[in-house]
Predict the structure.
Amino acid sequence: MGPFDTLSKLARTTAAVGSLGAGLVAGTAVAVANRDQRDGANVAIGLAGDLALATSGVHLNVQGEENVWSHRPAIFMFNHQSELDVVIVAGVLRRDFTGVAKKSLQSNPVFGPLGALTGMAFIDRADPTQARAALQPVVDNLQKGISIAVSPEGTRSSELLPFKKGPFHMAIQGGVPVVPIVIRNAGEILPAHGYLIYSGTVDVAVLPPVDTSDWTAATIDQHRDEVWQMFRDTLDDWPEPEA
């Protein structure tokens, strides 16, 4: 990789981060003007996602887009390959959702305020009591039509990791379906522990909603494993492009 390539990637990455800030500023202005935090959050999510993808030269090839809208609110679960996943999910879901992130991101000068505007839960995985308390307002918002985007792996990885049970408990508690968002190659565009964005196309498959109405705490391990297998099967045998 030559110096021009490095400078090009640095420019795209800087522009993408700046786009998140632009979305935050615009969303905050709308929230203040309309006296409605959700209006501001929706503007911030849509604008930040679109601008960050455009300025970084990343295109989304989304299959199953109808599943994004067919059942809301929902728990949208995505496999976590890259820091870019946040932008990808924003570009796919567009509006009326919040998320869950590790507590250390709350102090990030861009992501922290953006998370606060969108009602994100920042959780300390080492403190279960704090995590439950932080998640409760997010779960409660399901009754107001606000979906939740979360990675059941809990951390970034180039390989699909075992899923944690927390997001599945959230689905039961909220009485909403689970919608898998399978991301194929975000780690090639921005590696798991990298900082420079490569331009390119990220493949995303949104699977049909999974009914959770008969799920219970006693059967949650089974449902977690079934959903994990949906991700594994999709990654192993990527669906053909829709006609």
Summary: The first strand starts at residue 58 and ends at 63. The domain at 59-236 is CATH 3.40.1130.10 (Glycerol-3-phosphate (1)-acyltransferase).
